[in-house]
Queue: 2 jobs
Job 1
Amino acid sequence: MAVSRPSTAAPDVTPLAPPRPWTEREWMTLLRRLVRRRTALFGMLVVVGVLLAAVFAPLVSPFDPLEQDIGQRLREPGWQDEQGRVHPLGTDHLGRDILARIIFGSRIALVVGLAAVVISGVLGMIIGLVAGYFGGRLDDLLMRLADIQLAFPFILLAIAVIGVLGPSLRNIIIVIGVSSWVVYARVVRGEVLSIREREYVHAAVALGSRHWRVLVTHVLPNTFTPWLVVATLDMARVIVIESALSFLGLGVQPPTPTWGGMLADGRVYLSTAWWLATFPGLAILVTVLGINLFGDGLRDTLDPRLKV
Amino acid sequence: MKSYLLRRLWQSLLVLFGVSVVVFLILHLTGDPAGLLLPPDATAEDIARFRTAMGFDDPVPVQYLRFLKGAVRGDFGESLRHGEPAMALVVERLPATFQLAGAGLLIALCLAIPAGIVSAVKRNTAVDYVSTVVALLGQAMPTFWLGIMLILVFSVRLNWLPSSGRGTLEHLILPAITLGLFTTARITRLTRSGMLEVLGQDYIRTARAKGVGESPVVWKHALKNASIPIVTIVGIELGTLLGGSVITETIFAWPGVGRLSVQAIFNRDYPVVQSAVFLLASTFVIVNFLVDVVYTYLDPRIRYR
């Protein structure tokens, strides 16, 4: 005899399932679309290349980036030393291999880029969510704060603060990270303004969800794609700022190789050894161009309306 | 319209107030302004005496009010290195920075707007591709590298243009190009996309349908409507130009506010740093307020908001 049990409503089945995370297939679709755009593909290859170079720097680098050899100073690109080792991009004023220093320099650029983008991205996401969702006076206050932040010529504020705190990897990341939240906040806030009027948000509120729950499970996932696009493009900006700080002598201190620091060294030898300043700058240019193209591709694929 | 402008004015004042707080806090970041302002070899007694003399023992809000009282009169204290009022030193350098930023902006506008329009009108032709590629490169190129490469080619190799200093028009060329390129690239891309959007509108089709020639359609009907975002970005780009002057002036030994502030940071001359940051940030706020005023004339819809 079949026992009919009283039907228990499963408490974990809510009628308003939060947007699920992307499945592997969806990521593959995105990847395929990106590959089909030639410029985005180029950007992606550059980004992957720089990432690999940074991670496997000791393996791919032909020389030790710190190894000095005064006898071999200021040698031209393609110079071959007595042991038959070739310096493809030449050597600097202390006889160090330039290619090796560029490869190791990518580590600082990427570490600062990633860490600062995570800090500013999370900060901007929180501020944007709160401002857009709650609106009113809080929104006004946060947006005035954004105006204040934007009023400062960024580089000047950064060098002033780093000049006071002292240059170090940690300080650079904190200064860039804490002062770059505005773009994220504005884009996320803009998205939230339209999301909070959707039926599923109203329904969630009507069903008694707390505000933070609505924010985290219903609003946040839908702001993620524009956020990702902004983060990608902002990474390029952060890398330029890091090298500008290093160029001014306010970045990670020598002997650690940084692209900006190499440029500053090379500037002194401009009339005799052009390669010192030329190649690190090319490294920045190619990396930033790659990230920008990749970011543009992401934007066009994920969210063509987005204006960033 | 009046209430809109009044509201914008009030917001600008609030922003200026915030700017003053941040500038004040720069000196208090480490918690020990006396230690920052005195040379590293100062004795503990010296520091203690200095703290009392400067009022650093007072509560921070009291110190801020004192700072603000000075700031509204342009008094940020004396330069520790030059013994002159810090603000006067900065103001003295301001014309050089404005000249450079103005020249950079002029180059950007003269190149970018025609390039953007041609790109949009002749979409997907060789002209469009070339201008797009140049704009992409311009956005990816670090200012300091561009400046150094220009010096390498035009000063070191060709010996055509001076690589440093200020004086003749020739001194202005390389720094202005260096400073203006990023802005040129930005405005080119913006003009192109703005024009493409406007050219697809119904009223453009109407204008063409009623027999208006192609060039008045582009230059009158389309450009007028595409100009609004361009005016906005000019205000915002001014911040980029003023900030970029820090790097460009350092490379070309241009005697402006940017170079002065970099030197001041290395000399630990913080009153000068504070004056420079405050002055440049205020300039940005004021210009953007003025841009909004211009805006209400360009776009009557804003007046009724």
Job 2
Amino acid sequence: MDLAPVFLIVMGAAVLAYVVLDGFDLGVGMLMPAATGEEQSLMVASIGPFWDANETWLVLGVGVLLSAFPAAHGVVLGALYLPVAAMLVGLMIRGVAFEMRMKAHGWHRDLWNWLFWAGSFAASFFQGVMLGRYITGFEGGFGYWLFAMVVGASLCGGYVLLGATWLVYKTEGELRRKALAWARWGLLWVALGVALVSLATPMVSETVRDKWFDFPRTLWLMILPAATVAIGIALWRATRKLEAGPRGKDLLPYGLAVAIFALSFLGLAYSIYPYVVIDKLTIWEAAAHPSAQKVIFIGAVIVLPLIIGYTIFSYRVFGGKAREKLYD
Amino acid sequence: MPLVLFAIPNEQEKRNDYSIELPFVGSLILTHDVKGEVKGIEAFEPDRPPVAPLFFGFRIMVGVGMMMLLVSWYTAWATRHGLPARRWLLWVLSGFTFSGWIATLAGWIVTEVGRQPWLVQGVLRTRDAVGEITGAQLGASLTGYVLTYAGLLLAYMVVITHMAGKGSE
């Protein structure tokens, strides 16, 4: 049995789950300076039970990359060495700041709040840089790096969208009203980022160009961007509508934001498949020895249901509006 | 083989200078026999690690661990027998604040240096596993990690000093 596509799906699902889940808590971290001191405590409480479990998806994604596609792991993480190191420093600072800010007072708390913002921002930005480098095939030169940085900024906007819509779901009153406005800002950045990546990938790679501009298949494929735009408009209108009342379908904006990420991800996956390193390494060329794949497969079959199970469980237990003073 | 408690290993001459040894104990620990034979490091030439980091790393790990046991056992015993907390003991205990870290780091050096030049024993050499990352990149990331951890260590010390100042409530 050919297991390479199975692992590709597991890896893709893990990365997408990471982006939409850790994305919202990184986004909340980036929104900290826009809120008052009391609101900040509430914002931290709204992500408190979830944020570190969200990061396990990143570990799972990279773990599958290492074990199932070792050749690609070497190329990808070698080429992305510096952005990965910078992202890790961001995640470390942010994780510590999360714990320390609750116990600190006075200017110490201000410092940790600032570090929480800075770490969240650095982690998000460098993840975007990694994406930008990855889809341009790690080409050198100023233009490619500039592009990667714009993708980094756009991913920050995307995470702000996820964070803001998460706050709409988890909070009430003034903060919820603010979050609805933040969500619209995030949406504008997402529109820019998705447009940029969609234009850049076919320009950089002929393989991608041939896949998308191949009539009449192109007409079917256009459903994907059309659906993304439609969902974006629906999300904009939903934030307007929710502003009218104290409560409504408060989970809807986050759900729509996740849908935008999922569709963009699908489009990207279609562009790159069957490569793991664009135009250089296919999933079969990068795959581990079949006997190793079998072992990893058994491990995945045992571990994955457990991760999915506890994730659903914890989101159910801590569902609904966040309460203040979760930590204080 | 004796158990060498302390020495200055001399790699050129392949012997230990200024060594303090317990005869036969090394063989007893490793082979459960006072006359047991233990292979010398020459047997692994030329694929052998440098001696000094291993020699001292191992002794720091074991030495610090032993001292931690002695201090904790004595303190537990003294507390149980209702002895008043003496000032010198309190200073010894606070001196041991980072002992666990030191022992762990020393042990880490033993395992990482000890398996050189192999990354996977007999299969993959460290030299062959190195990626295509430049020295400048490694330097940049190492600087970043060191600065981050130095900052976090400082924050940690501020916190424990603050908590110690508050006393137990």
